[in-house]
Inositol oxygenase
Amino acid sequence: MTVLIEQPQLEVEAREIPRETNELVLDGGFAMPKLESHGGFEAPEINSFGHSFRDYDAESERQKTVEEFYRQNHISQTYDFVKKMREKYGKLDKLEMSIWECCELLNEVVDDSDPDLDEPQIEHLLQTAEAIRKDYPNEDWLHLTALIHDLGKVLLLPSFGGLPQWAVVGDTFPLGCAFDESIVHHKYFKGNPDTYNPVYNTKNGVYEEGCGLDNVVMSWGHDDYMYLVAKENGTTLPSAALFIIRYHSFYPLHRAGAYTHLMTEEDKENLKWLKIFNKYDLYSKSKVRIDVEKVKPYYLSLIDKYFPAKLKW
Ligand SMILES: [Fe+2]
Ligand SMILES: [Fe+2]
């Protein structure tokens, strides 16, 4: 379901998206009022065009959709499920294509969890990348990371198995150890069999303190898939880039500070870059249009620098 929301341009650009631990936010940072607000739900404002741009029914309908999304996500993402998905998709036997070809392919994906994305996905990628490039002109690896961070959403396409939304987008979290309270809609883990498995339901679970996040099984989605693709195809991007790709939806870590006991010193260093990146990922959903053809040569040169011409997917 796509809810189109009319917004004056300035408001969108200036909008800050606060990210509290229990806030409803689907991938990419679209913030929603809480469903069970304790008197805190405020009727939508009249916008500067003089008419209401979010009627209550549409908003509450959307909240239900998001809540149902996380219910399914939390009961279905188990340690076993992720192991199976990593094995299946880790074969990289779907097709061969370049990074840019994948950017174009992603345009076919309609992320119906995200009403802010009424423009092509490639524009979201390039908006994020260009915004970072402006502020960090020398970190070319970060520009490319921004361009590719959401490419794993091709998992939604029939040619990639047509995975359901709950297995592609949304906040991510570790499996194989206890579900931290800071995970959005934590209550739905009551329906997850791992909650009752004594091997998985302690603070460290199957892990050891300081084992490093790379050794931690994360809930399956576009983040982990793109990480596998980049790594297995031998990217020369630095470890901070791979860290951003794999953990950019890991909000319990970068907003709530959960699971830091599993991190190495290198993880902690990389987390600094992830926090920088995330600001841009959230803010980039503006109506600033990008001239794709104009910036394409620059990004093609970065792809050439850090990736083989064709990648296995
Ligand atoms: Fe994104
Ligand atoms: Fe993402």
Q: What stands out?
A: Residues 71-312 form one domain. The mean pLDDT is 84. The two ends are 28 Å apart (CA to CA).
